[in-house]
Amino acid sequence: MSTNNRILITLLVLFVCLYIQEIHAQTETNTTFMGGTMIKETYYSRTTKANRNCYVYLPENYNPSKKYSIVYVLHGIGGTEDEWIAHGSPKEIMDQLYKNKLVKPMILVFPNGRAMNPDSVPRDVYGAEAQAAFANFEFDLLNELMPFIEKRYSVYGDRAHRAICGLSMGGGQALNFGLAHPDLFGYVGAFSPAPNTDVTKFKVENNKTSPLIYVLCGESDNLLFVSQNINNYLTSKGIPHTSKTMPGNHEWSVWKEGLRSFVQMIFR
């Protein structure tokens, strides 16, 4: 083989190697996980006769031509729609689960669970007016927020693809609303549920239409008795459910783990 041919072959091999490296680099860039998007939305509520806000988490590569399951995530007694976003790291939790392919495609909605006008945090969060506003959110949720979300985003409209969960006061709301309407919610999660939980509102039976029910509470939580009472009631009625405890108090480490665990259980 002549010297010129050897040089030509060497150059060709070098070119092919460089080309393969470039293609590999482009592939890695194109498959970089960017994460989901958190959007702040405003909707008009006939329940409160005012505009109300919520946050919506859309998974990466949200495609309006596809249908997504939906999760309504509720805050605690002193919070608003901002509470989970500011303290609960829901985007980071969901992004990591998506990246590791541990969850099904879903959209999360973070509303203000206090249906009053104005709906900012009142001076007395334990007062009768504030307590009534949390109960009143059931009507805002069912009649205003859910129709708004289902019109604006490409989500399924059946119980098999709809979940509700929350922390503390929002955990009680999730149980009260979700188990009062098992025809609307196929999955209910409560993280450190508060004493607003009312088992007399539960309309679930030990049959195939019962929602998946998940309750988590910190072992040192002063409200642990609420979760224990819920567990005892559901057990006495023969209603399938999961009730767990973990190290912790009435705190975000428990609520973050509650959300992380719950979203991995649902829409399977």
Brief account:
The protein is an alpha/beta fold. The chain is built from 7 helices and 8 strands; from the N terminus they run H-E-E-E-H-H-E-H-E-H-E-E-H-E-H.
Task: Please provide a written account of the structure.
The structure is a single chain. The chain has 268 residues and is of the alpha/beta class. The chain folds into two domains: 32 residues; 231 residues, Alpha/Beta hydrolase fold, catalytic domain (Rossmann fold), CATH 3.40.50.1820. 40% of the residues lie in helices and 20% in strands. The chain has an eight-stranded mixed sheet, with helices on both faces. A hairpin with a 4-residue loop joins strand 1 and strand 2. Helix 3 runs parallel beside helix 7. Keywords: Signal.
Number of strands: 8
CATH hierarchy class name of the largest domain:
Alpha Beta
Strand order of the largest sheet: 1-2-4-3-5-6-7-8
- The helix fraction, in percent, is 40-55%
Mean pLDDT: 90
SSE pattern: HEEEHHEHEHEEHEH
- Strand fraction equals 15-25%
Which architecture of the largest domain does the CATH hierarchy give at level 2?
A: 3-Layer(aba) Sandwich
GO molecular function, one term: acyltransferase activity, transferring groups other than amino-acyl groups
Keywords: Signal
Organism: Gracilinema caldarium
Signal peptide: 1-25
